[in-house]
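[INFO] parsing input record for ABC transporter ATP-binding protein
[DEBUG] input buffer:
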Amino acid sequence: MEVVVAEHLWKRFGPTVALRDVSLRVEEGVYLLLGPNGSGKSTMLKLVVGFLKPTRGRITVLGYTPWRDYTRLGERVAYAFEGMPLPWWMTGREFVEGYCRLRGCDDEMLAQACGRLGVLDYWDRPIFGYSSGMKKKLLLLMALAARADLYVLDEPFTLLDRKSLEETCSLIAQLPGKATLIATHIIPDPVKETKPSVIEFYEGTITNVRRE
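[DEBUG] output buffer:
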């Protein structure tokens, strides 16, 4: 089953071309979008979830047009993006439990992810006092605690200590969806064991597609 189909996608931000003539087909499995900063990885993921509308070209995700069918698609896609703002005035518990009530997260998946990432150690502290790594774990919970057909993760391996990185890789390997899209600079060894498809981006284009 084709989960994502992109045909001749272009995305411009004023004079800057973030994606140029990108075509891509994603079926079931784990896909890594690999490349340096500014190569188009995160822009591609934002087009997938419907945060952005293509300047030119066509994209469908699970049969939907993401930017147009954002609400319906949102019921089937779970995502976490690097640098998403968090409500600093709330505790981690208030934020995650509130989000999960709205999203309909799985209680068992949430409890497992919280325990394995060590989030419960600072669960009831206000977010404004969190380190970058603590905030990163909260962002990951937005995706890892949800049941979805497609998981979209932007730089999930940064800012984590070794144990948290290992647990994140293990949780990703156990996600129940049809496909997982991950934008990253690195490929941790546990992720290599899932035999992902690797899509290499450079300057807004796909330069190579391979199986790890």
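[INFO] The chain has a mean pLDDT of 94.
[INFO] shutting down worker
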